[in-house]
Amino acid sequence: MQIKSLKGLMIPLLSVIAGFLVGAIVMLIFGYDPLQNYINLFIGSLGDIYSIGETLRNMTPLILTALGFAVASKAGFFNIGGPGQYLFGWFGGISFALAFPHLPGLILIIGSLLCGAILGGIWSMIAGVLRAYFGTSEVITTIMLNYISLYFINYAIRSWLAKKGNDSSPNIVAKASLNTPFLKSITNNSTFNWGFFIALVVVVLVWLYFNKTNSGFEIKAVGINETASRYAGVNVKQTIIVAMLISGLLAGLGGAIDGLGNFQNISVSNNLPDVGFNGMAVALLASENPFGIIFAALLFSALQIGGLSISVYSNTPSEIVDIVIASIIFFVGIKYLFEWLLAKKRHHAQTKLSEGGR
Amino acid sequence: MAENYVVEMQHITKQFGNYKANNDISLQLKKGEILALLGENGAGKSTLMRMLSGLLEPTSGQILIDGQPAHLNDPRDAKKLGIGMVHQHFMLIPAFSVLENIILGDEPTKGIKINFQKAAKDIQQLAAKYHLKIDLKAKVRDITVGMQQRVEIMKALYRQAHIFIFDEPTAALTPQEIKQLIKILRALANEGNSVIFITHKLKEIKEVADRCVVIRNGKVIDAVKVSETPEAALAEMMVGRKVNLGIIKQETDQSQKILKVENLTVENHGRLKVRNFNLTVHSGEIVGVAGVDGNGQSELIAALTGLIKSKSGIIKLLNQPLQNLSARQISQAGVGCIPEDRQNVGLILPLTIAENLVLKDYYHQPASRHGWLNYAAINQHGRQLIKDFDIRSQSEKEKAADLSGGNQQKVIVAREIAAQPKLLIAANPTRGVDIGAIEYIHEKIMAQRNAGRGVLLVSFELDEILKLSDRIVVMHEGQIVGELDPKTTTSEELGLMMAGKKPVMQKG
Amino acid sequence: MSFSTVLMTVFSTTLIYAAPLIFTALGGAFSEHSGIVNVGLEGMMIVGAFSSTVFNLFCAKIFGAATPWISLLIGAVFGLLFSLLHAVATINFRADHIISGTVLNMLAPALCVFLTRIFYNGKGQTPIIDQSMGTFTFPGLSKIPLLGKMLFTHTSLVAYLAIIVGIIGWYFLYRTNIGLRLRSVGENPVAADTLGINVAEYRYLGVLISGFLGGIGGAVMAQSITLNFSVSTISGQGFMSLAAMIFGKWNPLGATAAAIFFGLAQSLPIIGGYVPFLAHVNSVWFQIAPYAITIVVLVIFLGKAVAPAADGQNYIKSK
């Protein structure tokens, strides 16, 4: 059992190491000091209480979008719709908070988060329904839905939330914010907010869902083997839709928390939010394990936050951290290479052993 | 005298692990001859031919082509030597036209452009010579199975093959298409080509083959001249032994009708697979369904268990109509099923044994309460069944994937029997498992019968059918073509009926 | 403004916006016909846009007005090199095609902006290029009454080139033996293998062509529309090209037509002001149209098996 989980850690570990090596090589090629940069990166992300606050805050949406991707993935679906679902969640959260500023704080927050999560969930469910009833590839539909959500939400912000001619909504009232004075005071005014704890609770909930509930069991079963699940009496269509709904709920919650905790408003954007794609990267690195996602999110969040300080302390462009992140996922993707190398090494050791025995 | 033979396979043995699929097989093929390779499912015919066509390498033995030792490591080697194989599952590209499928890889070109005119002309000449009717412009996905087969034959002809291997060529064909195929085989032989064709249908052998090599359990039983050997003798050689009445069946009360199927018709991908099917299974009775693979057995089981909808007809379990209920409703009504394909249908391999054992019951007490799984109960249940059914495993938390084939099958048997079904459907329940597990599974199925339940046994293993059944029905092209009493029937009679031939001698 | 001028504006704007999509969608068709799903087109476009812009900025003095055209070739070459990553990952190392494509989309902006900062003093965007692709008036053809003004005056030459490439692409895929073999490995690699066709070789060909054309697509975007490179130079055009390829049912001619249609949709917000009945339609609907149409098309065409049968499946040869 222990040996197996160790083996499961091998691929992500090797991928992370390989990814950092690629980053180092790129830096060397262009005459930057990789060691110094990596040290700056570490200090910039975890070196003081403020940086830690920022890193943890940045982790929050990563964890949630990663969990969303993982849920769909367990059901056998590649949900690339994270960015769009996150965007809808963000929009839903801010809209609710702006619409009902007179509600008591806690109810306002819960309402906003729920509104965001539900919008994200419904948006994602479209892809689930199309997949269940028409067999339409969720990869393509979620990509298309991403862009539809980008343009639609830009439009919605301009026409419904922002003052005429503005590209941003007003800020939400202070009592709707997850970034409370208390948390600010203990993290040296960082954007660290209660969302982080919500995300941790959700990690536990998702783990419980997969390991302890009928519905989670069905999603797992359908994801592994649809035919056998149908034979065993599972309602496959319904399971697919539920999986995509939950997946979108989680990404949407990520967006709502970022809205309430980090941005306090929502603005028009030219590009899809990176966090949707990075959440996918986190889930892939963690092999979709809910607790693994915490660690993978910490790594990627630290890279992103630390990356900001790389360019402060040297003239190395901060995009180097995105190169590292992409490389890590590239190596996760070609894990067959590692498996092959490890198998070859084992084979080598075995032949040596048997030769020695002669 | 090797130079007389086009193909000579000498002492071929093929071993998979400890299992010898082919054991010291030798056969010869003469120029212009049609040689039938006869044997039951799993006798080792296809393995032998896959070696001849370069898809597998023999463990030992030698293959001579036109008198020369041949190294067949790749299908391309076989192509160079003029060997063309018509696979049972065609190697065609449905989205391509017939013409494109034929020339793919050997296209005539004018510059970089494919010379479609030249290709069409060449193919039409070949088609005329062999009376092969094909529509070159049609897409392969739109043509009949019979025409797809002609396309496969044309692919081999186009590549100038002179040795043709046909793997179960009639399995998916209609009677009319079979007649046409037999004409084509004759034409091939008359033009000086040599043909090996794998089959277990006796009638076709009589009609088309010159000689017949009978294989059983990986060994050659005999090579005979077809004209001098009666069909009954061929059947006897294929099946092998006299009926084994090893199990003494105890008397049971068979008064209750457990399953009643009336006029059931089932379609699969637009093809009629079960036609006006009628069947009754009584309490305390095992009804064996014998038949050659692909005659509608899979579709019958799928309809009975709710995996596909039937087109028309009635299915009743103790007077409760079951047709077109969901799989879960049917299982709740009391139908258990040991499916044909244990790894892809019966089990979810990456899940634990305990989880697999509750695959049909995870959603209700005691495995689950208010939507929450109770793993303590699930694992307890798993441990109990592992003990009761002698499943060899390290623990109930071991993955089903890590078990041997026999023990995987025991997990399914345990799950289905522990649910105490009124009707148990068993489809090839012992396919590919070791002898110990076979005996054990047979015992468990027999125990169900003795406990007064109904059992429907669908199997390609004649031995199994003869040994367990109280009644045997033979299924051919989606219908029951005859009913036999295992106590009085002979393997010849069964073999003939399975091949679609009505018994000549009527039982009194 | 006269009616014919409005039409001219509509047609030329449509073609200008369609050109990058046509090239990239064609690239996607080649890759997917060989059996490799390509959601990494966006990344390939980014690399093409970046490399062509840098080349243009460095070499405009040497090549003068020919610079943008040479830049296309540079973009193509770098797009091809970049697509090698996808080919190696999916064909040799059995990576999931979607994961690998997504990595390209993550890696390309990171790498290109990284290099931009290095080349241009830490700035995240390049200066504006001096030599860009302007509009082109066909001598002779433009004299045809009405049609000449509509189609051949102040229009996009590179778009016409793209359409020609579309026709050549169709001819290549459906009329040549290399095309037939390339499609065969995307439909049924096992069958192709039994006929002596090297599956990996043809899949490489498909992916590399997609990198080449995707690189051109990105380059066209930079040389004729944005005129510089930044992280938002390519913002969804790769995915829109993917959509065009699907809308065009994986057929190069269909993809070309779909890309022109999407080009029209993209240009509508710009020309909407000139066209009376469009002026009241909010531009968001034009922006959303290509993506929504693709979903509808996918749902309607289900079951007709338009995608190559083995698209996305890794081929593992058994011994």
UniProtKB/TrEMBL annotation, chain A:
Membrane topology label: Multi-pass membrane protein
Species of origin: Liquorilactobacillus vini DSM 20605
High-level lineage: Bacteria, Bacillati, Bacillota, Bacilli, Lactobacillales
Keywords: Cell membrane, Membrane, Transmembrane, Transmembrane helix
PANTHER family: ABC TRANSPORTER, PERMEASE PROTEIN, GUANOSINE ABC TRANSPORTER PERMEASE PROTEIN NUPP
Protein name (record): ABC transporter permease protein
GO cellular component, one term: plasma membrane
GO molecular function, one term: transmembrane transporter activity
Subcellular locations according to the entry: Cell membrane
Transmembrane segments: 12-32, 77-100, 106-127, 139-157, 191-210, 239-257, 291-313, 320-338
TrEMBL record, chain B:
GO annotation, cellular component aspect: plasma membrane
Domain of life: Bacteria
Organism: Liquorilactobacillus vini DSM 20605
Subcellular location: Cell membrane
Matches recorded under SUPFAM superfamilies: P-loop containing nucleoside triphosphate hydrolases
Membrane topology: Peripheral membrane protein
PROSITE patterns on file: ABC_TRANSPORTER_1 (PS00211), ABC_TRANSPORTER_2 (PS50893)
Repeat keyword on record: yes
Signal peptide: none
Keywords: ATP-binding, Cell membrane, Membrane, Nucleotide-binding, Repeat, Translocase, Transport
Domain ABC transporter: 7-242, 259-502
Main location, first listed in the record: membrane
GO function term, MF aspect, one: ATP hydrolysis activity
Protein name: ABC transporter ATP-binding protein
UniProtKB/TrEMBL annotation, chain C:
A GO-annotated cellular component: plasma membrane
Compartment(s): Cell membrane
Keyword Ribosomal protein assigned: no
Topology of this chain in the membrane: Multi-pass membrane protein
CDD domains: TM_PBP1_transp_TpRbsC_like
Superkingdom in the source lineage: Bacteria
Chief place of localization: membrane
Keywords: Cell membrane, Membrane, Transmembrane, Transmembrane helix
TM stretches of this protein: 6-31, 43-63, 69-91, 103-120, 151-173, 204-223, 259-279, 285-307
GO MF terms held by the record: transmembrane transporter activity
Record flagged with keyword Cell membrane: yes
Protein name, as recorded: Carbohydrate uptake ABC superfamily, ATP binding cassette transporter, membrane protein
